[in-house]
Every structure is written in C-alpha cells, then in structure tokens.
Amino acid sequence: MIWGGARRRAAELEAEVAACRAALDAISEAARAGARGDMERRVAAVPEAEAYGFAEVRDDVNRFFDVTDAFIREAGAALAAAGTGRFERELMLVGLSGAFRSQAVTINEARLTMAEDAARLTAGDTARGALVEDFERDVLHVSQAVGESARSMAGTVDALQGVTATVVQRAGEARDAVARLGESSETIRQVIGLITDVARQTRLLALNAAIEAARVGAAGKGFAVVADEVGRLADETASASTRVEEQLGASQQVITEVSGALGKIDESVDAMRDGVTLLTERISTGSDTDQALTDAAVHLESSVAEFLTVLRG
C-alpha cells in the first residue's frame, strides 16, 4: 500500500508539472506575440492548470495586454489626429489606471495646449495678412499722388517712386518669410514636448513591467519580453523627437531670413522718409494735390512703423 500511495503521489506531481508547463507555454506564446507587436493576442485557457491557480495569473496577464493595447491605440489615434490639426480627438480614459491614465491625461492636456497655440497662430496670420494689404494699399496711394505731381518735381518724384517700389519688394520678402515662419514655431515646440513626455512615461512603464517580471520569477519571462518591446517603442519615440528637432532647426533658418528682410525694410523706410521730407519742402502748402501727397506720405510712414512692430512681435 505504501508503494501504491507513492506511485499515486508521483502521478499527481507529474500531472501538476505538466499542467504548469502547459500554462507557462500559453503565457510565453502570448508574450512572444506581444513582442512582435501583436497586442491582440491573449493567454489561452489551460483547463488542466485551472486547479493550480492558473486562471488568476491568466486573467492578470490578459488585463495587462488589454490596457496596453487600449493605450497604444488611443494614443496613436490622438497623436495622428493632432498631427493633421484635428485637436478635438481626445484620448479616452475608460479602462486606464495608474501610469497609463496619468500619461493619457498628460497627452490630453498637451492636445488642448496645441489647439490653443494653433488658434493663436491662425489669428496672428490673419492680422498680418490684413496689415500687409493695408500697407500695399497705402503704397499705391502714395505712388498715384506722386504721379499727379510729377511735372513740377520730376527728380524727387522719381526718387520717391523708386523707394516705394523697394518698400513693396522688401514687404513681399518679409511677408513670405513670415508665412514660412507661421508654419513652424510654437506647434513644433509643443510636439517636441509631447513626444519627449510620452517617451519618458513609456520607459517608466517598461521599467515597472521588468520589475514585476523579476518579482514573479520564471513565470514572468513573458512580462520581460513585453517590457523589452515597450522599451523599444520608447526608443522609437525618442528618435521621432530628434527628427522634429531637426525641423525646428530649419525653422530657425526661416527666423534668420525674417530678420534680414526686416532690416532691409528699415533701410527702405529711412530712405522714403528722406524723400518725403525733400518733396514736402519743395511743394506749395496751398495746393490740394501737394497737401494730399504730404498726408499720404505721413500715413505711409505710420503704416510702415506699425507693420514692422507686428512682424517683430
């Protein structure tokens, strides 16, 4: 009877070992799928291992996959929408907790900030466009007034027309440079901050997963594989941040171009002021045409000063 009991016990142990091995195989298979980027795979049921507590472990692992999959999908959708200017796409928080939820909240806050910055940039572009139109209209009015007085002051009028043409050309250069600048600047900086924050939080998640895997021991090898994959995703995110930094460097070149164009406009404005002063000294204050020319010249100087102030602001 002793030998019979020993054999039964040995058979039970063998069955338990086989069940545990089958359970580990199921976990490892799901973990390998996750490492390949297949976040839809889940740990399959192993009926013979249910009696040894496998069901609870399986549920925990599958919940981890569920949350990770949901976070990746939601974050990807929100970032993709923001990349095309659709900032209303919110990262859903349902089912997320802990670091996942905290990171989701951070992304949503960054999304709102980006939306506000985009709105400010759009408003600024509209204001600049309107100011440029007013500027060009003023220049045209001055040119017409100069043409009406050309017979009595041909030399000075020719000089003023040349300076006016230069101002129009320099204003066009400044407008083009500002348009290119509007396509970069604050939005790029917000995206860099967002990507950097995502990378930092993702690395933290990978570290937590690795710690949990080490705590579980052999049964946590699958967790370690998933943690490595999450770490790799964080590295890819950091690489994306570097590429955005390169784009910001290109934006700095545009800023340099704007500064150069503004400097040229300053020189043109100074020359225009000298021409207008000389013209005012030569004309008769009793002539309606000459008075209109003087008023237009003064208004032009004011418009140019306002134009430069907006561009520098």
Plain-language structure description:
The protein is mainly alpha-helical and 313 residues long. It has one domain (2-312). Helices cover 84% and strands 0% of the residues. It is built from 7 helices and no strands. Helix 5 packs antiparallel against helix 6 (221-282). The longest helix is centred in the last third of the chain and has 62 residues, at 221-282. This is Methyl-accepting transducer domain-containing protein. Keywords: Transducer. Residues 137-313 form the Methyl-accepting transducer domain. Pfam families: MCPsignal (PF00015).
Keyword list:
7 helices; MCPsignal_dom; rod-shaped; mainly alpha
* Overall residue-averaged pLDDT value: 69
Largest sheet: none
Choose one word for the global shape: rod-shaped
SSE order, one letter for each helix or strand = HHHHHHH
Provide the gyration radius in Å. 35 Å
Number of helices: 7
The strand count comes to: 0
Determine the structural class based on helices, strands and strand pairing.
Answer: mainly alpha
Q: Tell me the distance between the termini.
A: 97 Å
Number of domain units = 1
Strand content: under 5%
Helicity range: over 70%
Provide the low-confidence segments as ranges: none
